[in-house]
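input
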Amino acid sequence: MCNLSEAIKEEATKNGMKAGIEQGIEQGIEQGIEQGIEQGIEQGIRKERFAAIERMIRAGAAREQILSYGYTEKEYTEAERILLVET
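output
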């Protein structure tokens, strides 16, 4: 009888570990996807902000005017640098 109860415990442990591993993998994948989506959105927003600044510079908007729209000095400087490299 001892061997049977030990075998049952061992099987239960294996099944529990397998379920735990599967659950951990699923959670890891979900978190990875969520992080990837968030990072992708942030990068897209950042690129669009630079593109908007570049369009305003090409249209002749003054630096102060662009900054008054809520863009940062750092964003303006980076967009200006990108624009200079492209031309």
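quick obs: Residues 54 and 79 are 6 Å apart (CA to CA).
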